[in-house]
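Review this today:
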Amino acid sequence: MLARRGIATALAMLSIGSAPAWALFDDDVARQRIEALKLESTTRLGKLDAQVEQSQRVQLDLTNQIEALRAEIAKLRGQNEVLTYELEATTKRQKDFYLDLDNRLRALEAAPVAAAAPAADPAAEARDYEAALNLLKGGKFADAQSAFEAFITAWPQSSFQPAAHYWAASSGFQARNYPRAAELYQTVHAQWPSDVRAPEALLGLANTQQIQGDTKGAKKTLDTVVAEYGSTPAADVARQRLKQLAPPPKKK
């Protein structure tokens, strides 16, 4: 009898030990644990989604900032090219100016005393031109533009007309008077195409067009530099600028 009871007790213990773990808990406790796990999973997934969304926003902001910086760099590069050529040309312009002035003074000294009409005052002409040039050197671009345009009007027969137009355009460009600068640059090329400043004036014109959003016009102007002044340093700059303005190749 005792042996049978012992066997029955052993069998009962074995059956409990082989039962699944969830059978040892009350139904309410099991449901509470399941709900708690669901809530924890939902909370963690929500936090993960928020982190992913924030990361995407940060990446988009960085992309926009990079594109804005690229555009600004392109703009500054164009302006720097113009300023570099202007600085390199300044010394030559001044030498040409004083050489021409000296030659004109010598010619006046050798001319007959009796003249049919009073000659222009070369000293006054030189003084006006030099005054405008000094304003440009001093960074007073709006004043320099006005001074050069006054010189253009006052001395229509001056040999410095091409230079005066070019520097008036450059001053207007620096003063952000882009429409007037474009007109003056065009005049240099149209009236004095053989002048050393003509290809540089076209580069300046392309800059004004690009800054004003006329990319098509800028490309056309740069093509003109390459076509008409292909062996000049200005043409090399134009070719480089055309590469920068060319659309990126399409992905296959």
